[in-house]
Design brief:
Layout: H1 13-16, H2 18-27, H3 32-44, H4 56-68, H5 73-85, H6 96-112, H7 125-130, H8 137-151, H9 158-166
Helix pairs in contact: 2-3, 4-6, 4-8, 5-6
């Protein structure tokens, strides 16, 4: 849709573009696995652009999801830059919000080990068990929520992390 100021918008194209992108990649002879990675990047390429300044929680989630999908988190930032660079009348280059996300992501890569193909915070399965929880689906919820909280600075050591886990009611 062309806006009165000349901008072209296509709300929802990130989600709507997943199936056609995957079909195109498969038609070019690439594997389903590769098509799934492309689909992930297409779906996430607007994740920062939609909400202004990124939060550590938002960046942490994008990174975890990217790693889980087998995609290097930097790929997501690069595609965000490419998408933004094709938007007239905005100048080419990485939007400020994406630059901020990339800086946070680099810091988190070191802190959480994302540069090693995984993300691991202070709270892990052993700590969750030590807090009295039995292994099950709640573990993932607790660990992922704790990583978001750690990214936002809610705690910085094991005791604070354990206190944080124990202070929440987990359903």
């Amino acid at each position: 849709q062309i806006q009165p100021d000349g901008r072209i918008t296509s709300h929802g194209h990130d989600v709507a573009g997943v199936a056609p992108a995957k079909a195109f990649v498969k038609a070019c002879g690439f594997s389903d696995e590769f098509a799934d990675k492309v689909g992930f990047i297409v779906e996430k390429h607007m994740a920062i652009s939609k909400g202004g300044a990124p939060s550590p929680k938002q960046v942490s989630r994008i990174m975890r999801e990217a790693i889980s999908a087998g995609v290097a988190p930097d790929m997501v930032w690069w595609i965000m830059e490419a998408d933004a660079s094709g938007r007239f009348p905005k100048p080419a280059g990485m939007p400020e919000a994406v630059k901020q996300a990339q800086v946070m992501a680099r810091e988190m890569s070191v802190k959480f080990g994302a540069d090693k193909g995984r993300m691991k915070g202070i709270v892990d399965g052993d700590m969750v068990k030590a807090c009295g929880f039995k292994p099950g689906p709640i573990f993932r919820k607790i660990i992922e929520s704790a990583m978001d909280a750690e990214a936002e600075g809610a705690f910085s050591n094991a005791q604070e992390a354990k206190d944080w886990v124990m202070s929440r009611s987990w359903q």
